[in-house]
């Protein structure tokens, strides 16, 4: 996978990965909550063989700055617009996973002139249902609980155990990604950004932001949905509902796959994205 690159945007540090062909289609990969551009590690090299691929660390995530500021979907979408402008990229196919799907939809609404196509992978923002853990963490007072349940000592010990298990061939890509998200919360600044991001979209009743009533705004935007039928974070029913609500959309449901199709079945995800982009004209 390509190395992290860095630039300053509005005075804040931005980390991103960019690789692939310098001309033709550009894919913008938007990761999920408590994730980073590293979540695309299994698909980015293959996609970069045919496309220019940009995968940033969103504000508050990964190696990007974690300012005390706005972590709403609209703020993330505007940030992506400004990043594309800074990099001289005029149009993209935007691909979002989990929270990144909600950001991708918001980006397509706010900046349709920049968006050729939309790909949603286990996307948030399409109904209230979400894993109970996120509902609990969104509740008042969790900022006092998180330092106790995600201390640096537990992170370090867990990383050692993961290393031992990997050495004897015991690995789970789904478990690894969940651990990476948990381990990131051992950092105070990351915790604060995580809570601001989470509470912008989730409360104790579930997802508080839904795009289902506004999907008509994207009429004419080619859309591909990808879901795992074993997604325990955001149920596959959301994918079916969105597919029904978006005329002309495509839906691919992967058997035995959970919330991270791009890690659990990367070959299938690459094939789906490649077929979608190569056979679907960009929105004019």
Automatic annotation (TrEMBL):
<dbReference type="GO" id="GO:0016020">
    <property type="term" value="C:membrane"/>
</dbReference>
<dbReference type="GO" id="GO:0016787">
    <property type="term" value="F:hydrolase activity"/>
</dbReference>
<dbReference type="InterPro" id="IPR000073">
    <property type="entry name" value="AB_hydrolase_1"/>
</dbReference>
<protein>
    <submittedName>
        <fullName>Putative hydrolase</fullName>
    </submittedName>
</protein>
<dbReference type="InterPro" id="IPR000639">
    <property type="entry name" value="Epox_hydrolase-like"/>
</dbReference>
<dbReference type="InterPro" id="IPR050266">
    <property type="entry name" value="AB_hydrolase_sf"/>
</dbReference>
<feature type="domain" description="AB hydrolase-1">
    <location>
        <begin position="26"/>
        <end position="266"/>
    </location>
</feature>
<dbReference type="Pfam" id="PF00561">
    <property type="entry name" value="Abhydrolase_1"/>
</dbReference>
<keyword id="KW-0378">Hydrolase</keyword>
<dbReference type="InterPro" id="IPR029058">
    <property type="entry name" value="AB_hydrolase_fold"/>
</dbReference>
